[in-house]
Amino acid sequence: MKKTFSFTGVLLAALVLAGCATTLTRDIEIETESAPGFSLSDYKSYGWVAAAQIVNDPQGQWEPPQFDADAEIRFLINSQLRGKGLSEAGLSGDLLVAYLAGVDMTALELKKDPASEIELLENAPKGALMVLLIERNSGRTVWAGVAVGDVKERRSQEDGRKRLAYAVERMFREIPAPR
Questions:
Q1: CA atoms in the 13 A half-sphere facing the CB of 150
Q2: Residue 11 and residue 148 in contact, taking contact as beta carbons nearer than 8 Å
């Protein structure tokens, strides 16, 4: 039986699960899905589908100045795949890697007012990162990971790096073990 991925469903579930941050990474929720029978050990190489872009942030509200989140994400994914024994081989790789990142600075969520015990809508910016592994020969997505977390304005570069590293490492930790 062929399993169909519902990326919108995974993203929605991850958004619902995202909570309030009390530590640097506590608010980050991770969801992954694998195609039936998928094992990373069946593949030896990977390549990038295309350069992804992160939502434009001209006021620097969520991406610190001089911080290139795209380059950082690509570096982290490369590190994870190489650590799992794959080598980069351009578009001739067994797997193609794609990622998408975005931020919604206008997201709202219900929060309880401690004084009145009434739930009120408050601004709660959210960010998401999705990574896809696509089998080059078949074009079939064999693995997807999604990370969703709160976005804090003017976070330091170091905090941004740590949060991205945590999200990518946690996603790739959930790749099925070799059979």
A1: 19
A2: yes
Q: State the Cα angle at 39 between 35 and 41, rounded to 5°.
A: 155
Inter-residue contact 101 to 54 (CB < 8 Å): yes
| 127 DSSP β-pair partners | 103, 149
Better-scored residue on pLDDT, 158 or 18: 158
Phi-psi region of 60 (alpha: psi -120 to 50; beta: other; left: phi over 0): left
Give the model confidence (pLDDT) of 120-134 as tens digits.
Answer: 888 777 888 999 999
Strand partners, 150: 126
The token pair at 131 is 């990574």
Distance of alpha carbon 40 from alpha carbon 95, whole angstroms: 9
CATH 3.40.50.1980 assigned to domain 27-173? The reply is no
Q: Contact at 8 Å (CB) between 97 and 75? A: no
What secondary structure letter does DSSP report for 54? B
- CA-to-CA separations, 76 to 85, 108, 154, in angstroms, rounded: 15, 30, 22
Q: Taking the domains of the chain in order of start, what are their residue ranges?
A: 27-173
| pLDDT single digits (tens) 63-119 | 666 777 888 999 999 999 999 999 999 889 999 999 988 877 777 788 888 888 898
CB of 102 closer than 8 Å to CB of 125: no
The Cα–Cα gap between 15 and 31 comes to 10
